[in-house]
Amino acid sequence: MQTPRRIGYPLVFVLLFSLFNLVLSDKVHASVMNRLGNGKNLTIHCQSKDDDLGQQNIPDGGEFGWDFSVNVGGTTLFYCDMEWENVQQYHFDAYSFARDYTRCASQCLWLISTEGMYSLNGQTGFWEFMYYWPN
């Protein structure tokens, strides 16, 4: 009677290490662009559980961006609070691994306009309207 063959532990280790390394090495660039027009400044404060990027003032036509690596557990989340003269304290997720890992794998770009928020879909290459501002 033959004994069953086991998958070699080195092979399993190499496969798991490669998967973790792939996730850990993925660098993502997130960016928020102010396209409100008429000289309106945008104030934004973005952070994750581990990183607070501080309050930023983005002039009309300007942009604020940052780079980060996704975590192994697939729970990376950067969220932002923003406001300007007509909208008070709007909260959104600038990067959520569950939503964005394939949609914007290497860059998550957000465009803030007077009618709402757009995001660039990295798979299609098109800007998509994502959110209306509350009344």
UniProtKB/TrEMBL annotation:
<dbReference type="InterPro" id="IPR010264">
    <property type="entry name" value="Self-incomp_S1"/>
</dbReference>
<dbReference type="Pfam" id="PF05938">
    <property type="entry name" value="Self-incomp_S1"/>
</dbReference>
<keyword id="KW-0964">Secreted</keyword>
<feature type="signal peptide">
    <location>
        <begin position="1"/>
        <end position="25"/>
    </location>
</feature>
<comment type="similarity">
    <text>Belongs to the plant self-incompatibility (S1) protein family.</text>
</comment>
<keyword id="KW-0732">Signal</keyword>
<keyword id="KW-0713">Self-incompatibility</keyword>
<protein>
    <recommendedName>
        <fullName>S-protein homolog</fullName>
    </recommendedName>
</protein>
